[in-house]
């Protein structure tokens, strides 16, 4: 057949073209036909179908036939123009320079999803198992909270590995996905679920495998596709029709055209099968008995999430009559019959998973995570039976609404709208006060800027009522969201609020405005150790020993809480008024790290990274042990170990280079650093063993932690006394406003840009 494409590209000489192809050709094959005509490689072409006013992006591995494309179909081809060579070269130079300065270096990541799909398309079960094993070893710890794993991860078109396996008919691979509990109901951008694909292509064994999934939604209907039974009837696959009916597929659901499955049946065999299942008992079960069983269900549960500071007790209400799961902020709101804070349509729910224990908090919590078209939501109770009841009730409600078409709206009848549907899951619950004290931007006067970094600035401020001086860390919300750094900012606040140690920075308050997040931190007037180190070539051994010993105590405290710091460097070690250290900047710290749950993220400053972080084999507490060795090396020599201006050479040195010491470094110091920076993390000493090394002979660790050991004095401008009078003079002398920002108005405090439970005041 002949297809006509409109070219969406200003540089194209002709905006329409025609090609000949067969209906069984794949979209990728069509791209290969278009490629020489447009003088563009296939991977830079996107094919789009305009159907009933909606744009459908065509997936490479699907056939033209699967989209019901014919000669009259409206088709578009979009050319993705690559950057010019000079632009790419400039970008690479900037990236290299930033790698030496920024706190984070982009991870050299593998295209796990691409490799997974390739194995599935080849039908290689053994290759797939090997790939999954590699992924579990290298990347499992990189999954934040309860995010979906590789098997449930979609590509840009919304296709997961299970979709491809069902399309290709690889039932053994489908069985593997089912056994591992992969999301079996996810809907692609072009409205296919795995069960719909298997039914459409006639892969009965794939259908059989999917029906064994405990969370399969056999009656799920999508726009233009109907249910799996509609597809099997329309395509004439009697064996699949039989399978679906044996598993209680509904025969009375109407598709978007108002047709039940029997009305689209294409063979006499199917016409004979369906009536056998349409007796009075089955109809009565659907219309009355199930109706009696399905009643609304309400109860209090806890809401939590990866960016929630506090878990929030809310009331969930399962409204069967309207087809919604409603979220109320509290029981009183529900009793007063006020509108729910958020409504989740049951037909939009793809999957519900049960897990035990919270990453941040109660290990006895029994959680249920709802994966839906509008986002992921995590709730929990403290009783396993109650959580199981909620899951069972919601799943029954989904099935009931599918059979009775409850909750269908204009989108289901006329197709999806081109708009953003996802709510801000991480911003559902808000608060504008903490511990009874209202803390906001107006509570402080800004004196001067202390420094700036990749994601924000730090100011010296004075609290207006107490005249106490603080450091105010300002982070731009929009920037954090755009660069996917919000979870790190919230994670830092989450960790700092419960840390209490003499050598770790204290956070007294946290608040927010519509534009920024703010953390009010202890002010350390004597700067950081990098500043002092830059003023001299290196530290004397006694000075280095003192500061590294206090750092060890701070890190040891963090490790006792299963927190890995992951960003040890002189810039993050501040000096307080008395001359003791304060470990600061917990943006990269990670909780709950142990041998069974290593931290997999590639982060930290390049020069101080442990070898295992470059190899992406996972980092544990031993990565911080390496970091202690790295900063001790810099204290004693004036340069980081293995340093090079070339980032690739730096990484190569870290992984394979040998430590070299100048003559001024004594043998005892060389020995401890070689042990701390062993390439093999399993051979590094524990911090307890480090403290007993001969290099630290003479250190009374208990006296040191009590701050009874006199700190060294660095420089002539050492600040030791409180400076309230000086600060007030500074306030009077600052006539202009250094930072312009505005607090929330009262009516704005529940806006969706208000980060959940961020505000905090230390009691």
UniProtKB/TrEMBL annotation:
Database matches in PANTHER family: RIBOSOMAL PROTEIN S6 KINASE (PTHR24351)
Domain annotation Ubiquitin-like: ranges: 1-77
SUPFAM superfamilies, per the entry: Ankyrin repeat, Protein kinase-like (PK-like), Ubiquitin-like
Positions that bind ATP: 473
Keyword GTP-binding among record annotations: no
The protein, known as: Non-specific serine/threonine protein kinase
Span of domain AGC-kinase C-terminal: 697-763
ANK repeats: 157-189, 224-256
One Pfam entry name: Pkinase
UniProt domain Protein kinase: residue ranges: 444-696
Keyword line: ANK repeat, ATP-binding, Kinase, Nucleotide-binding, Phosphoprotein, Serine/threonine-protein kinase, Transferase
GO molecular-function terms, A-Z: ATP binding; protein serine/threonine kinase activity
CDD domains (UniProt xref): STKc_AGC (cd05123)
